[in-house]
Amino acid sequence: MNNLRNKVQLIGNVGNTPEIYTFDSGKKKARFSIATNETYKNAKGEKVTDTQWHNVVAWGKTAELIENYVPKGKEIGVEGRLTSHSYEDKDGVKKYVTEVICNEVLLLGK
């Protein structure tokens, strides 16, 4: 059960062109968002789609794969772990960020 303590799996569509950073060491980092959709019927019987956006970060070979094969709109599956941190913006307001640190990506769709 230890490997289930902080594990997330998502399937969704990439919402923006992934941002790729290459460091002096040659290591790469990819940052992008994916949208997941859940469809349900409300009390009136109307079909409602709830879209959730998730920030994703990938490193190394996974980032290279994303750089080469994952454009905006592509359906992908990601597996990783959740991480949260905070920072102060330029106005001194504390902001909180939750990200998926991706260790595996699965290319789906066409």
TrEMBL record:
Pfam families: SSB (PF00436). SUPFAM superfamilies: Nucleic acid-binding proteins. PROSITE patterns: SSB (PS50935). Coiled coil: none annotated. InterPro entries: NA-bd_OB-fold (IPR012340), Primosome_PriB/ssb (IPR000424), ssDNA-bd (IPR011344). The keyword Nucleotide-binding does not apply. It comes from the Bacteria. Keywords: DNA-binding. GO terms for molecular function: DNA binding. Gene3D superfamilies: Nucleic acid-binding proteins (2.40.50.140). Homotetramer. NCBIfam families: ssb. PANTHER family: SINGLE-STRANDED DNA-BINDING PROTEIN, SINGLE-STRANDED DNA-BINDING PROTEIN, MITOCHONDRIAL. This is Single-stranded DNA-binding protein. It comes from Salinimicrobium oceani.
